[in-house]
Write a structure and sequence with these properties.
The protein contains eleven helices and seven strands. It is globular, with a radius of gyration of 18 Å. Helix 6 links the parallel strand 6 and strand 7. The N and C termini lie far apart (41 Å). The protein is 44% helix and 13% strand.
Length: 267
C-alpha cells in the first residue's frame, strides 16, 4: 500500500515541481513510484510528457463525480515510475459545486484506485490553497515542504503550518519536514537563515539542503533526475541524501502533535 506524500508550499518559486521529479526519479530505483501532477499549470506534465495526454487528473475527478468506474492506467515513464498528468481544466474544480462539497471523497476514490500498485505516491501541488489542495492533503499520509532560505520564507512557514492546522484538512498528516531548496551554501546569509530556522522550528527542518546548481534546470527541462544527467553534481548528491533522510522520517511526527507542542508564530 502506497505512502502518499503531498509536496506543497503556498509560496511559489521554491522548486516543488523540480523536487517532485528528482525525488520520484531517485526513489524509483528502489521503489515503484507514482507521480501525480495536480497543478493546473502542468509544469511537471510538460517536463515528462511531450505529447498531450489522453487522460488527466481532471478527467479522473469528473469520472468520480459521475460515479463511473475508473478505466485507466497511469502513464508509464519507466517500469518503476508512472504518472497521472495535469491539465489547465483543473482550475474548473475550484468553482465546481460538486467538487467543493465532495472533493475529499473524489480524491480518495482516485487514490484508492491506484495506491495498491505503488510503494510511494508523490503529489506535486499548486501554490494556491484551494479545494483541490485541501482534498489532496486530507488524503495524504505526509506533507513535505520545499522552501527557499530567506526571511520571507521563514515567516511563510509559520503561516502555512498554522493555516493547514486551522482548517483541519487532516489531524493525522505526518509532517515529513521542511527543506531548503536552491540553497547557496557559500553565503553567510543563507547559512544564518538555516541556523535560525533550526533553532526556531526544531527538528521539522531537515538536515539536508539541496544546493543551487545550473544543471538542475537543464535536467528538469529534459525530464531527468539531476544525478542521472550529472552524477558528480553537488545538487544531485544532495537529492540522494534527501531521499534517505525522508525515508527515515516517515510516520514520525503528525502536524497536529507538532502544533500542540510548539508555537510557530515567527517574527
Amino acid at each position: 500500500m502506497a505512502h502518499i506524500i503531498a509536496i506543497y508550499n503556498f509560496k511559489g518559486g521554491v522548486g516543488k515541481t523540480t523536487s517532485t521529479l528528482n525525488l520520484a526519479r531517485n526513489w524509483s530505483k528502489s521503489f515503484k513510484v507514482l507521480m501525480i501532477d495536480s497543478d493546473p499549470q502542468a509544469n511537471l506534465t510538460q517536463t515528462v510528457i511531450k505529447n498531450k495526454p489522453d487522460k488527466t487528473l481532471f478527467n479522473l475527478c469528473k469520472t468520480s463525480m459521475h460515479h463511473a468506474h475508473f478505466k485507466f492506467e497511469p502513464l508509464e515513464i519507466n517500469p518503476y515510475l508512472h504518472m497521472i498528468p495535469a491539465s489547465i481544466e483543473l482550475n474548473e474544480l475550484e468553482a465546481n459545486n460538486q467538487f467543493i462539497s465532495f472533493g475529499q471523497v473524489i480524491m480518495k476514490d482516485i487514490l484508492n484506485y491506484v495506491k495498491g500498485k505503488y510503494d510511494l505516491i508523490l503529489v506535486d501541488c499548486p501554490s494556491h490553497f484551494g479545494n483541490l489542495v485541501k482534498s489532496i492533503l486530507a488524503n495524504s499520509q505526509s506533507l513535505l515542504v520545499p522552501s527557499s532560505a530567506d526571511s520571507f520564507s521563514l515567516s511563510g512557514i509559520s503561516q502555512l503550518l498554522e493555516y493547514i492546522h486551522s482548517v483541519k484538512v487532516s489531524s493525522q498528516i505526518n509532517l515529513l519536514g521542511i527543506f531548503f531548496n536552491m540553497f547557496q551554501s557559500n553565503t553567510l546569509y543563507q547559512k544564518e537563515i538555516l541556523k535560525e530556522a533550526k533553532t526556531f522550528y526544531g527538528n521539522i527542518i531537515l538536515d539536508q539542503t539541496v544546493r543551487r546548481t545550473i544543471k538542475m534546470n537543464e535536467a528538469t527541462d529534459q525530464g531527468k533526475a539531476l544525478n542521472s544527467l550529472d552524477p558528480l553534481s553537488s545538487g544531485g548528491k544532495d537529492i540522494m541524501l534527501l531521499c534517505e533522510e525522508l525515508i527515515d522520517r516517515m510516520d514520525r511526527t503528525t502536524l497536529h502533535k507538532y502544533m500542540q507542542s510548539n508555537s510557530v508564530t515567527y517574527a
